[in-house]
Amino acid sequence: MRPGESDQAVQSPNVPAGGGEAPAGETQAPAQPGGGQPEPEEALGGDVAELVAVAAQRDEYLALAQRTQADFENYKKRVARESSAALARGIAKLAKELLPALDNLDRALAEAGDDDGPFVAGVRLVRNELQAALERVGIESFSPLGERFDPSSQEAIAQRPAEEEGQSGCVIEVYQSGYRMADQIIRPARVVVAA
Predict the structure, then answer these.
(1) What percent of the chain has pLDDT above 90?
(2) CA 136/CA 176 separation, integer angstroms
(3) Fewer CB near the last or first residue (10 Å), C or N of the chain?
(4) Of 141, 137, 129, 156, nearest to 93 (Cα)?
(5) 150 in a structural domain
(6) How many alpha carbons lie under 13 Å from residue 112 in its C-beta half-sphere?
(7) What is the sign of the dihedral through the CA atoms of 170, 175, 177 and 183?
(8) What's the CA gap between 7 and 81, in Å, rounded?
């Protein structure tokens, strides 16, 4: 203490009455006219600004959620398409492997002619079951006899002179049936075309 000062502390005008200083982090609000409370307009202005900020953040989160949902929906559709295409490729690959066996069964039945013995009946049964299994997965055979030659679904293995008028360019004999699944040609039909 300096000489001449009393033992009592001098109270500064900013220190609250009752001694001591304001707790750390708290500041004294400037005196407001009308009793120390902030004006209602100022309080509302702060609340409105806070609500606007919260609404903007809400809109941002909503837009993010909508984009994420749209991305997920697109992902599900893409995976479904890819899965369906992979399944179709697998079925087509298996069918290509089975078609030679089906052709051989057809040749065996053609050689048997009208024989209806038990062996031929068994071969016919196996052939029909194999054909039915292919049809159940969407594979159908086609024989373009009498139709105009179409190189996208037929393979010309020979050409013969036309036997009738207007027959030129048409299929006059089918050596081997073709197979397709929807619009996909699994094996083209092998045909003879009239010249």
Answers:
(1) 63
(2) 21
(3) N
(4) 137
(5) yes
(6) 17
(7) negative
(8) 90
DSSP-H helix ranges across the chain = 40-112, 118-136
Residue 155, domain member (yes or no): yes
Strand bridging mode 154-160 / 189-194: parallel
Quick: pLDDT tens for 61-84.
999 999 999 999 999 999 999 999
CA–CA distance, 58 with 15 (Å, rounded to integer) = 43
In a domain, 19, yes or no: no
Reference 179, options 105, 113, 91; nearest CA is 91
Query: Which residues partner with 192 through β-bridges?
Result: 158, 173
> What domain range is 149 assigned to?
140-195
Q: Token pair for residue 68?
A: 């994420």
Q: In sequence order, what DSSP letters do the residues of 134-151 get, joined into one string?
A: HHHTTEEEE--TTSBP-T
Q: Give a yes or no: residue 183 inside a domain.
A: yes
Domain tally for the chain? 1
Position 9 scores a pLDDT of 46
